[in-house]
Amino acid sequence: MTLGIAPRRGKPRWLILVAIVALCMGILPAAVALAGPVGNASGFEDDDGNLNVNSTFDWNGFDPTTWTGTAPNRQSTKIASGWQFLGLEDAQAANGDSAFAGGTKQDHSCATIGTGKAPNKDDLKRIYVSSKDVGGKTYLNLAWVRIPQNTTSASAHVGFEFNKGTSGTCAGSNLVQRTAGDMLIVYDFEGGGETPVLTLRRWVTSGACEVTTNTAPCWGVATNLTAGGFAEARVNVGTTALDTIAPVDETLQDSEFGEAGINLTDSGVFPAGTCNSFGKVFGVSRSSGNSSQAAMKDLVGPGNFNLTNCGTVNIIKQTNPRGLNQAFSFTSTLTGAQLSCTADTTPASFSLNDNGNTSSNSTGNTESCANVPAGSYTVTEGADPAGFAFQGVSCTSSGTGTSTSTSGKVVTITMAGGGVVTCTYTNQQQLGAIKITKTGADKSCTGDPLPAGCSAPGVRLLSGATFSIKVGTTAITGSPFTTNANGVVCVDNLAFGPYNVKEESPPTGYATDDTSTTVITVDTNAKCSDATFVGETKTYTNTPLSDIRVTFNSKAGVGVTTATIQCTGDPDFAGGDDAAPVNLPDDSSGRFLDNLVPGTYSCTVVVDP
Questions:
Q1: Global pTM value
Q2: Do 425 and 453 belong together in one domain?
Q3: Whose CA is closest to 404, among 426, 425, 421?
Q4: Are strands 431-441 and 454-456 parallel, antiparallel or unpaired?
């Protein structure tokens, strides 16, 4: 065969020839495989048989990772591009490797664990697990790494078991006692390049078993995920794969690496609108894909892995200042058959009250909803109650793929499996103020400028007047209040609402003009210290009082003459009236006509010898 190839400018002819030879010998790296429908939907290259990130995301996208613990049983966790990752390491080619006792089958509820060296094709180095919610669906990726193989056609049968429980271990091992709904995914790869097949089983406590001769509890009848289009997988047959998330970067040889991607929502593990969760995972190599015949070999794990399609939403209502007795209304689109909320079972509409809380929260001001299915939701606070203004809302979110955004009183929540969202709404109490000004007539308030203490010609600001301020019949703190040298009483930090204001006593030398109770409604946010006061105002006027003294003295001796006085005026005054004269005492003290308001008075004094 003759190849006519002209060398490219700047490229040595020998390098091109080497590439041609390599191509002819088939030793160049394999072409990048396109992801299948599951990987295309999830954004994870789950069936190209390598770990490299070629277009969207792949296992090496978690690099760098940190492995903790003691070799050869370390583990690694990380979150990257919204994917949560768990890697579990296992001893390899060692007699002390964790293993299942001879003859142990997958159906054994609490398998007997011991040590031993697994057969070459069943000896696992590591398993990898990752999950993410994408478009309201939960995706799970699995991968296994085994030791170098004696033959490139060696089959691989790996079970990935997910347990709902996280405690209550089996006697003699660190495995978790199985409960109804536990999940077993079996990865069956028959050597020779055939596409791996993934099957799913659920732990049942009643009903049919996969192994027909068994009785429940057992693994239920298997579902073929691959045939249903819910899973896809690949083994690195005929090529190498670089693993950079291993404890040490490692090039995996032919058929040492297998991976898979599964749509857990469409496969029925996580049906839309319902909740499911798993807390533990372990990997196990099996002698074959036939559960009735397969013996369990090598064990990797278990490890903690929060695989769930539901999360938790907490809505907290706080007032500023804390602990005020005021209900606030909310609406939300939180829904789901398994949704469980503390305030009510249908949180489409609920009410929260911060009453009595000072530095912590309570059931009264918190709506906590568990089992919120993955998806998008909104929570909205209603109209501000009288005397309160919306101050803001702050949210925190945790968990892969869970996030929030806010616009005014509306919080939009994107919930992914395992996510937790906590949003705290704060409303500030609107506090107003009442300013009372006390004035009185004063003829001395003349000139320009006016004398100190005068507010206008003929008007003086009066200190010493007292006022009560009550809510209903209960005086507020500090009541009664006394006007200062400027004739002012200003009281702030008043919650919105009506207040009963009354002058209780006038300054010395003045009469109270208005003895009634005035209702003043506080409905404007204000403080006494504001540069421009915009609160409630009220001016009271007092009338100045005067005294008239009339003295009588009988010069010839006491009783020789007598005298009476009768005064008329408007209004009447103490010591005399319009109807009858009043005797004047015969002494130097005279008769005081006290506390006369300004007016015109006529008095007649009659001396009667």
A1: 0.67
A2: no
A3: 421
A4: unpaired
